[in-house]
Design brief:
single chain, DUF6290, DUF6290 family protein
């Protein structure tokens, strides 16, 4: 199933978006979908990063230590 979303933008922005999408071989719909989903993914990544930073105790390992820990 496909849903249609509508957005209002001024003519200058519409022209820029159409040119950008066309230059990259995409339809405006593909470009908009990709941009919106990437924005959501970036926000999710930022939440995960902030959680990881909050849990970080500052311990660091050398490559040799990491290999030993993993049995490599």
């Amino acid at each position: 199933m496909m849903t249609t979303l509508t957005m209002r933008i001024n003519d200058q922005d519409a022209k820029l978006i159409k040119e950008y999408a066309g230059f990259h071989g995409m339809s405006v719909s593909e470009f908009a979908r990709n941009a919106m989903l990437e924005t959501i993914d970036d926000a999710d990544d930022l939440v995960a990063l902030r959680k990881a930073i909050a849990k970080d105790d500052g311990t660091r390992y050398t490559l040799d230590q990491a290999k030993a820990e993993l049995g490599l």
